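Section: Multi-chain targets

For targets with more than one molecule, the full set of components is provided together so that the structure can be written out for the assembly as a whole rather than chain by chain. Components appear in the order listed by the source. The example entry contains two components.
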Amino acid sequence: MHYFKENLKLFEKHLEEYKKKLHLKEPPELYKPESYILSLGGKRVRPLLALMACELFKKQPKLALNSAMCVELFHNFSLIHDDILDAAPLRRNKKTVHEKWNTNIAILSGDVMLVKAFEILQTYSDSEFKKLIFVFSDTAIKVCEGQQMDMNFETRKRVKVEEYIQMITYKTAVLLGCSLQMGAINAGASTGDQKNLYEFGKHIGIAFQLLDDLLDAFADDPQKFGKQVGGDIISNKKTFLLLKAIEISNAKQHHKIKSLLELKIEKAKEKVSGMLEVFNELNVKELCKQEADKHTKLALDYLFKVKADAERKNELQLFAIHLLNRTV
Amino acid sequence: MHYFKENLKLFEKHLEEYKKKLHLKEPPELYKPESYILSLGGKRVRPLLALMACELFKKQPKLALNSAMCVELFHNFSLIHDDILDAAPLRRNKKTVHEKWNTNIAILSGDVMLVKAFEILQTYSDSEFKKLIFVFSDTAIKVCEGQQMDMNFETRKRVKVEEYIQMITYKTAVLLGCSLQMGAINAGASTGDQKNLYEFGKHIGIAFQLLDDLLDAFADDPQKFGKQVGGDIISNKKTFLLLKAIEISNAKQHHKIKSLLELKIEKAKEKVSGMLEVFNELNVKELCKQEADKHTKLALDYLFKVKADAERKNELQLFAIHLLNRTV
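Its structure, encoded as tokens over all components, is:
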């Protein structure tokens, strides 16, 4: 995991320099939230993917630093706006931007970060710039579409498992693919290699989200998971587990699921244990794992096709496995 | 005004085609608001400026159609988000997007329009594309900064007239300059001509906003003005008139202004007539007109410097005067 740690250092240094410049910008109400959210930490998965993709083709990862900033800025813009949509009070145990300041400032500081995600790519040559924006704007639109689908699902009665997979693909997975493709563009990789890396990232992203669903229900170690175990069940979130359970349940099980969904917040404990019982009965934990494995396998197939050094591809593969490998 | 009407037709047709494609897009919750706000009408000032700037250099205006769409998409994105910030129920006598749908949908459909404003420029060549995004992203950032300044002014005790001019420059005027510069880029105009057209549009924009302040207080024909006369006074908006009045008032007048600002909404009529009395006493109507004239003159000086056909420049000048020439 040599490249990964070195690249993280490289990116964090670049980010610090970017943040320093933010302090000088006016009006501060617009730029303090940007500095704040960029300082909340996180694994910097997307920027790392951009740098590693560039390095995969034996180019200096620093060539992809502004692509890395672009995807990190976009990711953080989407966190600010999504937290408004979800009325979330906390993000990484700190106040969300709309809570710390207010909704208006959160909307506007998010907007300016979205514009800056595009602006920061201007250091690249004309033709590279256009290629980068081509994949980035296509991805950014999909992320918005995925977020809207997710919102729609909340009030929809019936959601198919395939629709759910499409939603997480758009909302979460394509940005991982995009990060890799942008790094590959910076390295001057062929269109075929770019596309294969995009698909690699996309399928890793789908697997990641499916495992996140699993962890939310079945995490052994809530501390490590970092969120409340059973949170999705309590909020009736239409995850893979719930949708699959509904799909394969018999009439009696279906009735039980429906009654559990109607339980009020006071009966959260009963709801969680009841739902886990149904999930276990229907073996959806295993089915979810299988689905995640399917996408991990697909991802690795795409990585295999990329024409690059086996050793360097191995670095990317290790990083992906590191991402996916949280205790279930 | 031949070019202006022809160009309006050209743009409206292009917009209709764009809107037709929106109907096919999923999820509809994300794209219906876009179609809705683009259908509310408006003078299409920004797209017209882009087309006219292109034509100024004897190039077909259709070359600038996607630049025109870019600035119109951006303008409408900013309307959707600004209406949330202002909690405005109506826009052009129709429900605002957050009222017709909800705030979440308004945030997200605005976000996607902002991304699409960038995306739509991809029809241009690599080098043109980068030049366009350079001026557009710089402008988009300024518009956000101007909006934040405007919000800050609401709660700030003291705002200088110059700060107000900077705010309207950023919030309103630079987008007019940007529209013209983008059209000039599409025509292959020199950097000097591009910059002069940008400054022309910017100063026309400042003059326009100053005259809008004037009309809000002094419009003879409320029907024609389209907004409630005295609205700014009732809401204590820090316009040029109020800020100038505070700046040049003596102690007694200053005291009167302060008392008027404290009058509650029930005494709106008294507030408006009292404030107009002070404005008249201090002659700020005339001072505001002079300031607008100064910027109109500056604008025309910049237009004069542009190396293009006098007759075609005249078209742009007529269009600018048409914009500014509303009855005060």
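The first strand of chain B starts at residue 90 and ends at 91.
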